[in-house]
Amino acid sequence: MLRLIAVHFFFALLLTPAVAPADWPAEFDRWFFTAEEIEVAYRYQERFGERLFRPLRARDCLLGKKEFTAGYKGIEFAAPCRFIKETIRHLREMLEQGAARYLFPLDADHAHLAIPLELWENKYSKLPREQMLSSLLSEPALAALYHTAEHLTVIDPQTGKSDSQVRLWKDKRNVVGYYDGRPTEILPPDPRGLGVNIPQPYYSLGGFNFLASSKGELSLFLKSQAITFDISFDIGEPPDDALAAESQARKANR
């Protein structure tokens, strides 16, 4: 089973779905949860939830190292710690600004990487695919588009009215993080609460996931709280050998 899909379905089963906004079709009702329900689900993930598959082993980046060994689909390559530190900065700033509250699938758990279209056409489109990711992680013009509040409803299921504080959270759900040191940018909200694109001619180049976990490789500090989490480029189904190993481990623990 796809790990990412499994996480989504787990939280869908854990909680009673909230009422969806009135302008959404009825079949989307099970997609949305109240702020309170999301908080409960996050407490479980933070304490007991699984980690991402193949998390980046970049803990030494927090100890002053300049490079770490990254991996994608079993291929390892040297990557700059600047990518990790800037990504951590993005997440911290999103949390500080109220654009996100939690690092897990019901709120914020992924980013879409992009570069200016001109840079893609002049440089990256000419690179072999196996070199592209390692080069991108060192690219100052790299940007990450984050979509938060993924499963959040602003409608109070008891009253049917919009919650103004939750609406502020939802309105900040489109965030761009830059890897050249610029502060994160909250984009204007879509009137329907949907995710939007970077409002410049950028070329999308895949992305990464992140997930809070008690055993996470990385950490950030927000006020007096430490949040541990993982980042991974491997989004989707583990390879057959990993699935087989997990199956054997389950049998051994019975």
- Assign a percent range to the helix content: 25-40%
- Low-pLDDT windows of residues: 1-21, 237-254
Structural class: alpha+beta
Largest sheet: 7 strands, antiparallel
Strand order of the largest sheet: 6-5-4-3-7-9-8
Percentage of residues in DSSP E strands: 15-25%
What is the chain-wise order of helices and strands? HHEEHEHHEHEEEEEH
> What's the total helix number?
7
Total number of distinct structural domains: 1
User: Strand tally, please?
Assistant: 9
Global morphology: globular
End-to-end Cα distance, whole Å, is 20 Å
If you average the pLDDT, what whole number results? Answer: 84
The radius of gyration computed from the alpha-carbon positions, rounded to a whole number of angstroms, is 19 Å
Your description of this structure?
With 254 residues, the chain is of the alpha+beta class. It has one domain (3-252). It is built from seven helices and nine strands; from the N terminus they run H-H-E-E-H-E-H-H-E-H-E-E-E-E-E-H. It has helices at 3-14, 35-48, 81-96, 117-122, 129-136, 164-171, 240-252; strands at 67-72, 75-80, 110-116, 143-147, 174-178, 185-186, 202-212, 218-222, 225-232. The strands form two sheets. It has a seven-stranded antiparallel β-sheet.
